[in-house]
């Protein structure tokens, strides 16, 4: 299976199982960990970090993206960053299912993006199921929040620190708690 075939396959939401898929996921994980270890191994300018992020994602990174290491990714090739994105230290990207971070997003310390879930029954527990995470424009995610698979967060929304987001968040909405629930609506811009 090629990388492009895998990226198309995960869009279907079908289980990630079998020898061919497992081999590709392991190889990509090795590459992602190698690149993130390089990012995390010492001081790098933001230009150097963007170059390494480009290697991690396989895409051109906008010159306005800023990231404070360390950062962790277990795939990398399904992570998409818009212009003017800021990612603070210690964030984790499990991006097999796809993570899209829209323009102007601010990501706090130690945020987790988890695009895979396991089967519920013990017989299916080792099988993972992908679903994308999508952040619209100007989303602010507070420190230590967790965004789970299949969640879309609308433009200008805010996720409070420590929240666990299990469901879509409408635009211009503040959510918080475990599981995250709407706290208030912001005026539309």
Written description of the protein model:
This protein has 189 residues and is an alpha/beta fold. It contains three helices and 18 strands. A seven-stranded mixed β-sheet has the order 1-4-7-12-15-17-18. β17 and β18 form a beta hairpin. The chain is globular, with a radius of gyration of 16 Å. It starts with a helix and ends with a strand. The mean pLDDT is 97.
How much of the sequence is in beta strands? 25-35%
Query: Which strand order spans the largest sheet, edge to edge or round the barrel?
Result: 1-4-7-12-15-17-18
Overall average residue pLDDT = 97
The counted number of beta strands is 18
Helical element count?
3
For the termini, the CA-CA separation is: 44 Å
Biggest sheet: strands, sense, closure?
7 strands, mixed
Structural class: alpha/beta
Q: What general outline do the C-alpha atoms trace?
A: globular
Spell the H/E element sequence: HHHEEEEEEEEEEEEEEEEEE
Question: Percent range for helical residues?
Answer: 10-25%
Q: What gyration radius follows from the Cα positions, in whole Å?
A: 16 Å
Low-confidence stretches: none
